[in-house]
Amino acid sequence: xxxxxxxxxxxxxxxxxxxxxxxxxxxxxxxxxxxxxxxxxxxxxxxxxxxxxxxxxxxxxxxxxxxxxxxxxxxxxxxxxxxxxxxxxxxxxxxxxxxxxxxxxxxxxxxxxxxxxxxxxxxxxxxxxxxxxxxxxxxxxxxxxxxxxxxxxxxxxxxxxxxxxxxxxxxxxxxxxxxxxxxxxxxx
Length: 188
What we know:
Elements: E1 2-7, H1 13-22, E2 28-35, H2 41-48, E3 52-55, H3 58-63, H4 66-73, E4 78-81, H5 90-95, E5 100-104, H6 118-127, E6 132-139, E7 149-156, H7 163-187
Parallel strand pairs: 1-2, 1-4, 2-3, 4-5
Antiparallel strand pairs: 5-6, 6-7
Helix pairs in contact: 1-7, 6-7
């Protein structure tokens, strides 16, 4: 059995899809949802699905290894970032070498890095008059959006697409591909 911890900061739409996808899987279990916001809707999604939750604060996250102890106590094998906005500290990257993955709402290396998340990404894609966008699933290292790419999928953009239209197209790809890519990666 592989135990997952999902890290999320917001509404948790990707976390919800992952939880639903693995709900009946006998080899992969979503064991924990971690958030840096005590009122994040993702925590409610976890509770509705009887998944343990943990709220972390910035000081402990960056200045102690308390979270690592919590993850080890729960026998977490993989960390999945699903809309988690903090940079992952060195100690976690080293402890979970090539076992932390993230999804980014653009085709990296374009439109990545610090501050590039959510609608900011889609607005930048629109402003650049891109003809396509998509998702990138990648390993996490010590830098925002710089880890090795695992998977990308594209969507075509129309000239009249708004930033919101782009967001909807990209989110559809996230929901379609993130959980199956996780499953394939964990089975290899």
